[in-house]
Amino acid sequence: MTHTEAFSRAGQGHVVEWLTHLQNTPGMETQAHDLQQQMSSIDVHALTTKHAKAMEVSKQLVTMKEEQLQPLPDITSLATTPLSERAEWESVGYQKLAQGKVAALVLAGGQGTRLGASEPKGTYDVCLPSHKSLFQIQAERLCQLQTLTAKRQGQDKVTIRWYIMTSPATDRSTKEFFTKHSFFGLEESQIVFFQQGLLPCLSPEGKILMESKFKIATAPNGNGGLYQALETEGILADMRKHGVEYLLQYCVDNILVRVCDPVWVGFLYHKQADCSAKVCGKSSAEEAVGVLCVREGQVGVVEYSEIDKGVAAARVDPSVPDSPLRFNAAHLCINAFRIDFLEQAAAEYADLMPYHIALKKIPCADSNGETQQPQQPNGWKLELFIFDVFAFAKNLVALEIQRTEEFAPLKNAVGTFRDSEETCRYALYRLHQRYIQEAGGLITNPIPTPTGPSGSVARADCESVEACEVSPLVSLAGEGLPALVSGKTFTLPFLLA
Predict the structure, then answer these.
(1) Average of pLDDT values for 47-57?
(2) Nearest CA to 175 among 191, 159, 162, 160?
(3) 77, 388, 396, 490: which is deepest, by most CB within 10 A?
(4) pLDDT band for position 62 (50/70/90)?
């Protein structure tokens, strides 16, 4: 069966009609060829199945009641773990990093559209004193981690592989950005770029949307497309070749992320986990974040919109107003996977994961084939969620960390003061101030504690904060600072580079 026949049989004859129109129009041979190539890359039968599955999932999305959910029974909290045990995990972590058994992966397919920028989000400058981009901050953390690992393990050199998942919209400019900045001190060969997959955009009725008369509208298939991309892009083979046993994944927009955290690495080996997630306590019952829990007998993440408000506000001890929330494990999209689990995910689990519908404003062609920008959501993007693979894990372990130490995402535009450039800066400045103070440095005008509800960061906090930045190349998390700051006095703004 030809691809045009397949499209027609799948109810997508309108795409064939555009192709026929182009083939019969003088001067449109190149456009006809491009559309034909795009059509041949799409398994239209599989697309029909995915649409049907997404429809089924959307019909099943009801508010989860308390009897359908249970808190995850065993979450390890770093705050209550004895220092000796943490030190043991860290020691194992450094050993495994030195042996090349661990790699980092960053999800970097998004553009900074909501930030008012068109470039990849990783290239964004959050206006620190150093004016480092998110990519540079993370690259320098990896550089310093390699240096610390080599020194600690008595090796001349340690190299940690860094996998960067882009999208067609960000791939070229991301690579150019790294080349322009000489890979931020890392070796070019240790950085591996690869792209996540695309899916055609659909109308609610399941019809493929045309972006123009010669191009099908497509969109990335969600962060859960990672598993298939690891296989199709050769990343699993690359990890096997280099002896990688665990892959530690994070999102590019987290300014506080600890790339390849040695403590977490040791924890993974201690627990013999096939996958893991870092979590933190929710800032409030109303925080719009997914919760890691047991849903209908399986480990998974329940989105905020899926939880009954009463369940979201339920306390461990209802008689104590400040008792922790029952469902308090906020999923941060900081995950770890053992390679054999990833291989199973690519070969088996990915095909069983549900597709989710995102209603979006999708530029599409009118009856004349001219691209129109819709004012209202007009189509569907089908997405896979990275956490839906948790249901297949035989040994998922969760590690609770402190939000103020490891999680401050950049999601929204300047001026929103909610997961924005301002709140990212504030979080980093407060953390770096703490490093200096714990190392014996005195700050004459310290940044005060946040004044928002439940200890959240308020607009006034962001507007009055003075800068306090420590370069990752100086210290990752306070190590080495006593020799530089102990007994000394500093006035903000201050940059230690």
Answers:
(1) 86
(2) 191
(3) 396
(4) low
Instruction: Read off the DSSP letter of residue 331.
Output: E
| 459 token code pair | 């607009």
- Spatial distance between the Cα atoms of 330 and 290, rounded to a whole number of angstroms: 6
Residue by residue, what is the 3-state secondary structure of 174-212?
A: HHHHHHHCHHHHCCHHHEEEEECCEEECECCCCCECEEE
Structure tokens at 25: 């129009």
Q: Looking at residue 150, what DSSP letter applies? A: H
Cα dihedral 79/81/82/84 (nearest 10): -110
Residue type, 484: L
Q: How far apart are CA 216 and CA 212, in angstroms?
A: 7
Q: Which two tokens stand for residue 32?
A: 């006809």
Q: Reduced to 3 states, what is the DSSP secondary structure of residue 240?
A: helix
pLDDT band at 61 (very low <50, low <70, confident <90, very high): low
Measured between alpha carbons, how far is 267 from 260 in angstroms, rounded to an integer? 12
Q: What does each C-alpha distance from 221 to 10, 193, 197, 216, 346 come to in angstroms?
A: 20, 17, 6, 15, 14
What is the per-residue pLDDT for 67? 76
Rounded Cα distance, 74 and 362, in Å? 42
Confidence category of residue 408, pLDDT binned at 50, 70, 90: very high
Helices (H), 24-79: 29-40, 44-60
Portion of the chain with pLDDT greater than 70, in percent:
99
pLDDT tens profile 8-38: 999 999 999 999 999 999 999 999 999 999 9
Q: What is the sign, positive or negative, of the torsion defined by CA atoms of 487, 489, 495, 497?
A: negative
DSSP string, 1-14: --HHHHHHHTT-HH
**What's the rounded Cα separation, in Å, for the pair 261 and 267?**
10
Residue 276 has pLDDT above 90, yes or no: yes
d(CA 362, CA 425): 33
Q: Is the peptide bond before 446 cis (omega within 30 degrees of 0)?
A: no
Tokens representing 139? 């690259």
206-221: per-residue pLDDT in tens?
Answer: 999 999 999 999 999 9
| Nearest CA among 222, 239, 491 for reference residue 383 | 222
Euclidean distance between CA atoms 243 and 222, whole angstroms: 28
